[in-house]
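Researcher: We're teaching a course module on how sequence relates to structure. For the next exercise, students receive a sequence and then see the predicted structure as tokens, so they can try to spot secondary structure elements on their own. Here is the exercise chain.
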Amino acid sequence: MKPIRNSAKALIVRDGAVLCIRKADEQGIYHILPGGGQERSESLHDALRRECREEIAVEIEVGDLRFVRDYIGRNHEYADVDLHTHAVELMFLCALGPGAEPSNGQPPDNGQVGVVWVPRRELVRARLYPIALAHVLAADDWTSAPIYLGDVN
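Model: And here is the predicted structure for the students to work with:
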């Protein structure tokens, strides 16, 4: 059995849009928040800063923890490939460092085709994962949503 994987994600909102990594797979274009896996002996904040330098080529200021989600692969539509996956994502409100303008990291992550600002109202149609987060962020009152999103994809 594989260990549970922790990852830290950056929720960066500017002018009503969310900063996303645009990726492509066999089903088309989808979006995720910048960030990634925590390494041994690395704090969540350090992991998030490192991942943002790698993926979106900027320094960030890490703020408060805002959302948490489990992803237990066997419970979702990709169970055939994620059967033994259990990941916990911790999403922090973040800000770009002074003068920072995000772009693809060098080299970009596998499948990464861009870095884009997606208007909150378009997140559901933009295929943002986790899908539950897209619905929360598209709501008028997203800042009062529960922190724990559950076991969602």
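Model: If you want an answer key for the exercise: The chain has a mean pLDDT of 92. Residues 5-148 form a domain with the Nucleoside Triphosphate Pyrophosphohydrolase fold (CATH 3.90.79.10).
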